[in-house]
């Protein structure tokens, strides 16, 4: 589905009939192996026997992993919780607000400036930390807006739990769009005559231009940004879609305990975790402590979703690491079941690519 000029598509259900897969794999195994086997084994029975072993080894590795991935990760639903009442009209209004530079203090910045979604852009600006509308330097790395509707923890310090509550923050944040107040925001929208028909369509029984309706429509729009990945195709039943390296990367991911923190179908996004080693944390950012003042919350940060992670460098709350390989090397300092070898990190990266939207690149 094409949403408001962005190419983010809703997931197609790609269940492939198991019998078709069976014959395809058989054909594939024959093409790749028959001739070799024929050289060494003239006895036809033994030849068939070896092909069967090879075939069942391959298919059982893939199908075992498919089952484990289904149980331990799962596939992304077509739409986030709470999207039942997201009409096209609300999404259209949210889209207009998301792109409106007039809603920043000096009229040059919109949500889409830092969260670009058009074409192949993956929902974040690729900056270490972004600059606000007057060029003021931000403190934290921009998370992708893709799949944001599935997050129950928002912001790196987890200070919001819903898109509805979060929606107005960036407009009045002094390091972002820098409006002086919520009422200035509403005034700006009221002064633009092009908005009234959008509000009438989105909220026919109560078309007021107020904070409540702005929150509802921005949240509806954000919930429509759902990505579509090869990993979901695999988990939903397409056993053939992963190559050997992708399967091995997934196997390592499940084995070493990445899912202890990057859990659920979003692979993160729903919990915080304490950065305990001085090597990991940034002394200028205390995480959740900055919101609560509770010393137990010092260095508590959001565990980010790993969906689209191969498209959203640089990494971590402060954008301090550019390479994905180094980022994963750092996870060795977190609570893994065992240390990762360099070759395993390469395979993990191959697997992480399957979690990215098929229509996006970086
Ligand atoms: C100047 C760049 C900038 C602009 C403009 C901006 N954002 Fe963000 N956005 C960020 C940064 C940086 C963060 C992380 C801040 C933090 O964690 O403290 C963020 C976080 C978010 C999050 C939480 C994501 C998550 O996974 O935790 C949402 C949702 C969001 N922004 C939506 C919006 C909307 C809606 C607008 C427009 C009203 C907007 N942003 C404008 C930079 C920006
Ligand atoms: C103990 C919990 C924990 C475990 C286990 C864990 N992570 Fe993380 N991961 C985090 C936290 C917390 C962050 C954010 C840290 C920060 O911002 O400073 C993170 C960040 C990341 C990032 C950067 C994401 C971004 O958008 O910036 C990647 C990639 C990543 N982890 C991959 C992995 C992989 C692969 C594994 C398994 C080898 C793993 N993690 C295991 C907690 C964990």
Automatic annotation (TrEMBL):
GO cellular component: periplasmic space
Keyword Kinase (UniProt): no
Cofactor-binding details, from the entry: Binds 2 heme groups.
Xref: Pfam families: CCP_MauG (PF03150)
Cofactor(s) needed: heme
Keywords: Heme, Iron, Metal-binding, Oxidoreductase, Periplasm, Peroxidase, Signal
Domain Cytochrome c, residue spans: 244-356
UniProt binding sites for heme c 2: 258, 261-262, 331
Keyword field contains Iron: yes
Post-translation changes: Binds 2 heme groups per subunit.
InterPro entries named in the record: Cyt_c-like_dom, Cyt_c-like_dom_sf, Cytochrome_c_Peroxidase/MauG, Di-haem_cyt_c_peroxidsae, MauG/Cytc_peroxidase
Xref: PROSITE patterns: CYTC (PS51007)
Record localization: Periplasm
Protein name: Cytochrome c peroxidase
Organism listed in the record: Leptospira ellinghausenii
Name of the coding gene: mauG
